[in-house]
Amino acid sequence: MYKVLIVDDEPLIREGLRSIIEWNEHGFEVTDTATDAYDALQKAPLLNPDLIIVDIRMPGMDGLTLMKTIQGQSSASPHFLILSGYADFDYARQALQLKADGYMLKPIDEDELIEQLGKIKKLMEEERSAKAAEWTRERIAQIVTAEEEADIPEGAAREAGMDWPAFDAVLIKLQSLSDIDSSVPRESRTS
Fold first, then answer.
1. What are the UniProt keywords, alphabetically (predicted)?
2. What are the chain's domains?
3. Rounded to an integer, what distance in angstroms lies between the CA atom of residue 141 and that of residue 127?
4. What local confidence, expressed as pLDDT, does residue 89 receive?
């Protein structure tokens, strides 16, 4: 289930978005709402949303500035779906430059929202698959044997088929015969 944070200064829009569709049926869960960009900046690090649906025009900080700020705070930025009450080309252009995943005009159409969520979900699944593919058995084994230092993401061992309750490890160091001969003391060798 992908986590969603809805950010809009209008209470009717926030609650309307929350109830317009059955989010769970589409693979999403609305974890919270935020009343403005500042509220969202407080909640986003705690909720770690996969998708932020944000109004473009809000008092104080607008949705585009919120998007830039969140993108600048983390390398693993959430996806963004921009909402606007205005068919303003400049807003749409700026949203695209910031790599927004969608731009919808208010009032929100239920079918259009479902279509946008489908596209975003597909994109997130592709990203998740690509990231999981990075964590092969060999890479996890390298980390376990301290050949490489990194945090193994939650679920990576399961994806690589290595989520055993316990295991034994055998470490083998390959050596040539000359390496072996030179490491054994002369008096221990048999003729």
1. Cytoplasm, DNA-binding, Phosphoprotein
2. 2-134 (3.40.50.2300), 137-185 (no CATH)
3. 23
4. 81
